[in-house]
Structure formats: structure tokens, C-alpha cells
Write a structure and sequence with these properties.
Elements (H helix, E strand, L loop, with lengths): L3 H10 L3 H8 L7 E2 L2 E2 L3 E2 L5 E6 L6 E8 L10 E5 L8 H7 L3 E3 L11 E3 L9 E5 L9 E2 L6 E3 H18 L8 E6 L2 H16 L10 E7 L5 H4 L3 H7 L5 H10 L12 H14 L21 H12 L17 H10 L2 H6 L18 E3 L6 H9 L3 E7 L7 H10 L4 E10 L2 E9 L3 E6 L6 H4 L1 H12 L5
Parallel strand pairs: 6-9, 6-12, 11-14, 12-13, 13-15, 15-18
Antiparallel strand pairs: 1-4, 2-3, 4-5, 5-9, 5-10, 7-8, 16-17, 17-18
């Protein structure tokens, strides 16, 4: 139930107390301050964690990390950040991409991995909620088996409910500008969440609970026709396949590399040849080495979990972990750190809920029921939602060419044509502005999650955009 103080506050805002009671009636909100983290020590910034129930009986409990703005928390906007997957933990955003911490990449010696500050954290200019969603992601869980059956639409609905309840429990943020953000697969869900918020506000006669201003997405999954279909021209433009093979595939597949290959033998043969040519390329960033820590010869994560179940506290990870030079090495450090009992105690994780934390849960009972998000982008643009769509230009998972293609289908007017954007005296990428506040930008040299590769450039891009300045 809402408190007397909250009641008076929301009355002044003109928000219906009936709606507030409905949202909070069965909700147990348990925010907890985190003052210190193992592997780092006392935190120089504020961190809150907690759980929120997002279904009718609060069987589905979503876990979150919240970092208030380190700049001007009174005026800076509030961002809800969702990692891709689906099923990849919000800890990825917190320690790999846009959050205030990073892992120290040092050779693992059996001790707890250590963390360092990220000078380019987006929390310098905004307050950010990193949400473990959908259910089954990170530390989020359900008390009943049925609760784990989720999908794009359920994910979006529960994320909206989460944000409404979170704002009610943090009334000082009610009036803040709100943005929904994420990358990779969350490109399917973020526009749907934003649309849910706008459509839900239509049903409230008084002031809406969420002051949504826009959304931003990095290398977003949108529609397989564009996302997967752009990999062939991308491979050609990046000199991964020869011109003759590209022209043959383009001719035999009639430019439809996703649908047409199922019924056309010559097309399928060309695509198989292209697949063989690029099989050893790191699709997340084509210039980086391809390292697979999950292949049979590197089953360290799997063996760690098996041994931990059998021997529990008596077993320790062997100090010799291969692929130290690979970016995927951070996955090993993160797995060890997040499964440490002292870390989970510091984060106020409810005990006895999860057997083992995994960065990306690939076993979700998940319905991919949003085939294309293009129509949602068009709807949001027509409603005046600002948007920033950015792409690391060396990502072959969701190439920038495909993102440019679906943006073109929106038939928006160009307000500021293709030009470089700079950090210092260097070109950091290229950008184009469209009508109603849609901005597209490439991040030069970036991979699938651009802030992970180029944190300084991406912070400059984000800071300018969130402050409504030209890139």
C-alpha cells in the first residue's frame, strides 16, 4: 500500500490513487543499498539492488541494479537498460558496456577477479536501472514453473509494470525524463516496451506515470529479413568474400538471402560457400580473434559448474585458464565473480533461488512472438519519441547495412544528411538525422556491443544525444 507521504506527492501530480493502489497492492519492493563490492572495495558511487514482482501474484520476481546519476541526479534523465540475448544478465551492461565498473583483465590465479572504475560510464550523465529481464535472466526468478514461460510480448509488458512499480517506490524520479535502452536482441523488445508505455498512458485520464521521452538501441535486432539478410553484402563490402561469389549469390538468391535460399538450390549452394569462407571470422567484431570458450576443448565454465555441484565449497577453479588474450576471457571472470557467495551477499541476492548464475541463459522457455519491430519504430516516431539507433560498423551479427535498410523503409525526411561525428580531432563514426528526432550513427571500429569496444567514443555520442546536442 502507498504511504501517506507518497499519497500527498502523487495527489499533487494528479496521478490516480486507485491506479497506484492497484500497482502496489501485492508488490513487495525490497531496495537495498550496496556500499562495497568484493573485488573492488567501497564504492565511490551509489548502487542499489532489489527485486520487484511483475505478475498478478508476484510469482515473477525481476532483479535490478540501480545507479543514480553521478552528475546531476536532480535533473538528469532516468534510463531503463535491457541487455540482449534474450536471457543475458543486466550485469553485462553494468560491467561490460555502459556501467561504472569494468573487470581487470589479469591472468586468473584462483582468487576473486577484481574490478576497476570505468571513466566513461553513462551514469556520469544519467541515472540507470539495469534490469535482469525476462524472467530466468541473471538473478531474476519465478516461484512457479508457469512463470518461466515468457516471450517478447510478456517481456515487454512485465518491463513496463516493473518500471511503473519502481517509480512508485522512488517518487523523486516520477517527474524525470525517461528513456528505454538496450542492444542486440533487446532491439525487438525496447520499441515494444516504449509502445506499451505510450498506449498505457492513453488509458489514464490524469497524468501518466512514466514521462517517456524516447529510446536508444545499439546494433539492434529488428527483423531477420534486414538483420540476417545484410550479412552477405556486409561480408562483400568488408572483403570477406570475393566479388564473383557475391554477384552469384545476389543473382541466385535474388537479393533475398533469408527466405529464398529454402527453395532455390543454387542460392543455397552460394550461401553455404559464403558460410565456409566466413566460418572462422569473429562475427561480433570481424577484426578480433575468434575464441570459443565453450567449445569441447575449453569446457571450463561447464566443468566449473559440475564440480561446484559435486564438491561445492571444497573445489576451486584451476589457475590456468586459456585464451587470456581473447575478449571472451571476461566471461570467465564474470562467471567466477557473480557466483561467489560473498559477491551475492553484497548484492543482496535471495538465497536458495538459483543453483548457478549464468551471464546468458540459453534455456529460456521463450516465445519469439515479435517477428519485426519496424512498425513499432514507425509508431513511436509518429508519436514524437526521440530515438538514437547506433551500430558498431564491424559487427557482422547485426550489420549496420541492415539497420540502415529498415530505417529507410520508414520513409522519414532527412533533416541532416550523412556526415562524420568527431571525438577530439578524430572521426568517431558517421551519422544522419531524420524527422521527428530519429538519429542513426555508426561507431567507427565498433563491434556488436559498441560501448564495450569504444567506451570513450560511445560515451561522447550518448552524452551529446541525451543533452539534445548534435552528435
Amino acid at each position: 500500500m502507498i504511504t501517506m507521504l507518497q499519497s500527498e506527492f502523487f495527489k499533487r501530480l494528479g496521478v490516480s490513487l486507485i491506479i497506484l493502489d492497484r500497482l502496489l497492492l501485492s508488490s513487495e519492493i525490497s531496495p537495498s543499498a550496496v556500499k562495497s563490492l568484493p573485488g573492488f572495495g567501497p564504492l565511490p558511487f551509489k548502487l542499489e539492488t532489489g527485486y520487484l514482482g511483475v505478475d498478478e501474484k508476484d510469482d515473477v520476481q525481476l532483479f535490478y541494479y540501480f545507479v543514480p546519476s553521478e552528475g546531476d541526479p536532480q535533473d538528469d534523465p532516468l534510463v531503463l537498460w535491457l541487455t540482449g540475448g534474450p536471457g543475458c544478465s543486466a550485469l553485462s551492461g553494468l560491467v561490460y558496456e555502459i556501467g561504472p565498473l569494468r573487470f581487470n583483465k589479469t591472468q586468473y590465479d584462483g582468487r576473486l577477479p577484481s574490478l576497476m572504475l570505468n571513466p566513461y560510464s553513462w551514469t556520469k550523465v544519467s541515472s540507470i536501472i539495469f534490469l535482469d529481464a525476462p524472467v530466468g535472466t541473471g538473478f531474476s526468478y519465478s516461484t512457479i514453473a508457469e512463470g518461466y514461460h515468457t516471450g517478447d510480448k510478456v517481456y515487454a509488458c512485465q518491463s513496463r509494470i516493473f518500471l511503473e512499480k519502481w517509480l512508485l517506490s522512488h517518487p523523486s524520479f516520477i517527474e524525470k525524463d525517461v528513456y528505454i535502452a538496450g542492444d542486440s536482441y533487446s532491439g525487438k523488445v525496447v520499441p515494444l516496451i516504449a509502445r506499451e508505455i505510450l498506449e498505457a498512458s492513453n488509458n489514464i485520464l490524469q497524468r501518466p506515470l512514466i514521462n517517456l521521452k524516447g529510446y536508444l538501441l545499439g546494433n539492434p535486432a529488428t527483423d531477420s529479413i534486414f538483420d540476417e539478410g545484410s550479412r552477405i553484402p556486409f561480408a562483400y563490402h568488408k572483403a570477406l568474400i570475393p566479388k564473383e561469389l557475391y554477384k552469384s549469390a545476389k543473382r541466385n538468391c535474388r537479393g533475398e538471402y533469408v527466405r529464398f535460399n529454402r527453395t532455390h538450390l543454387e542460392c543455397a549452394e552460394d550461401l553455404q560457400t559464403i558460410s565456409e569462407c566466413t566460418s572462422r571470422v569473429n562475427k561480433g567484431h570481424i577484426l578480433e580473434p575468434k575464441c570459443d570458450i565453450y567449445k569441447p576443448s575449453h569446457k571450463l565454465l561447464e566443468s566449473r559448474r559440475y564440480m561446484a555441484e559435486i564438491h561445492e565449497e571444497s573445489w576451486r577453479v584451476p589457475p590456468e585458464i586459456p585464451e587470456f588474450h581473447c575478449r571472451e576471457y571476461y566471461d570467465l571472470l564474470c562467471d567466477i565473480w557473480a557466483n561467489n557467495p560473498a559477491v551475492q551477499e553484497a548484492l543482496h541476492i535471495r538465497q536458495g533461488i538459483l543453483r548457478c548464475w549464468v551471464r546468458c541463459n540459453r534455456s529460456l522457455a521463450y516465445a519469439h512472438d515479435v517477428r519485426s519491430a519496424v512498425s513499432h519504430h514507425l509508431y513511436l516516431n509518429s508519436r514524437g519519441c526521440r530515438s538514437l539507433i547506433y551500430s558498431g560498423d564491424h559487427d557482422m551479427v547485426i550489420p549496420y547495412l541492415g539497420t540502415q535498410s529498415w530505417i529507410k523503409t520508414l520513409n522519414l525526411s532527412t533533416m541532416d544528411d550523412w556526415r562524420p561525428w568527431m571525438v577530439g580531432d578524430q572521426v568517431a563514426g558517421f551519422t544522419r538525422e531524420y524527422s521527428n528526432g530519429l538519429t542513426f550513427a555508426t561507431v567507427k571500429g565498433g563491434g556488436h556491443t559498441a560501448p564495450e569496444y569504444l567506451p570513450e567514443e560511445c560515451f561522447a555520442m550518448y552524452k551529446r544525444w541525451i543533452h539534445r546536442e548534435p552528435l
